[in-house]
């Protein structure tokens, strides 16, 4: 499949499709990044294990430091969802997340995808995450009040590729 | 499960959980209502067949005239999604859809659900559908431009129960 080959990024990072042996590293970063509840980690790993989504990992010096879970959005012609993106806390603020995000967008373009939708939390402790998306060209497309739980809105973002 | 018993509605309508023998009637109304593309019908029936969602049908004089597909929204405390609601074209404008909608909302309340989210098309030919939701207390919570296809936005609705 086009775009599924390993790709060298700036800074010696490498992005490649997920392999079964990456599972422990992904599980570890989901817990260690401290951004996700136990249930979120469980669901994220279900989406790894079911193999129903496209998964990519980013390596730094041979160690898996981030992953993303994406797929075509059902019932749409050219919309994709970015379901999960996670970078190990020890690798944050070094361009790992940005490299992975850009790779994902290039991959989606290579598959004739024209837009990416993602959902994230409106909580104050997600402000850095939301700013990351906004700097990357994602625009708010909606907000569902108290969606995750009272006081925890869902913010929808859209990026037209 | 609470709320899963049959319920008599006004006008002699009856709502009950979906049974395997309802499958043909549901498939028929999805096609006959002419609101859904072939792919939408296929996905709606996948969601019937996988038995991973809660399904209800509404009967009029013993004939299944509508159905709804709902479920708890993953990763949320008290949010539910209304994924599909369809009324046979021969039974529209007689309160069948409204009765089914109200039953669904009562059922969700009985399960401690506090809000319902649904997605529908922003196309002009969906205006009657959107008005139905708006009259029923659903408020727009977002719009994703060109989501389904160019010129076909996704409109998100939220009802707080």
Could you say what the CATH topology of the largest domain in chain A is called?
Aminopeptidase
Gyration radius of chain A, in Å:
15 Å
For the largest interface, the chains and their residue counts are: A-B, 26 and 26 residues
Corresponding CATH superfamily of the largest domain in chain A:
Gcn5-related N-acetyltransferase (GNAT)
Number of helices of chain A: 4
Shape by Cα distribution of chain A: globular
SSE string of chain A, helix = H, strand = E? EEHHEEEHEHEE
Q: What is the total domain count of chain A?
A: 2
Structural class designation of chain A:
alpha+beta
Unreliable residue runs of chain A: none
Helix content of chain A: 25-40%
Oligomer: homodimer
Beta percentage of chain A is: 35-45%
What composes the largest sheet of chain A? 8 strands, mixed
Distance between the termini of chain A: 20 Å
Q: How much is the average pLDDT of chain A?
A: 92
Description of the molecule:
The structure is a homodimer of 161-residue chains. Chain A has 161 residues and is α+β, with helices and mostly antiparallel strands. In chain A, 29% of the residues lie in helices and 37% in strands. Chain A is built from four helices and eight strands. Chain A has an eight-stranded mixed sheet, sandwiched between helices. In chain A, helix 1 runs antiparallel to helix 2 (38-49). The longest helix of chain A has 15 residues, at 96-110. The two termini of chain A are 20 Å apart. The relative contact order of chain A is 0.15. At the A-B interface, helix 2, strand 7 and strand 8 of A face helix 2, strand 7 and strand 8 of B.
């Amino acid at each position: 499949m086009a775009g599924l080959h390993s790709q060298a990024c700036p800074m010696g990072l490498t992005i490649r499709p997920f392999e079964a042996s990456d599972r422990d590293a992904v599980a570890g970063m989901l817990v260690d990044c401290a951004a996700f509840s136990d249930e979120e980690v469980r669901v994220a790993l279900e989406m790894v294990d079911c193999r129903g989504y496209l998964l990519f990992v980013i390596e730094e010096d041979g160690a898996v430091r981030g992953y993303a879970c994406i797929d075509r959005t059902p019932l749409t012609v050219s919309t994709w969802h970015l379901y999960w993106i996670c970078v190990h806390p020890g690798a944050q603020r070094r361009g790992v997340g940005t490299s992975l995000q850009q790779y994902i967008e290039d991959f989606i373009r290579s598959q004739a995808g024209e837009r990416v939708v993602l959902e994230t939390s409106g909580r104050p402790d997600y402000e850095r995450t939301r700013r990351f998306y906004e700097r990357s060209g994602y625009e708010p497309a909606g907000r569902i009040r108290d969606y995750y739980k009272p006081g925890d809105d869902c913010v929808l973002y859209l990026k037209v590729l």
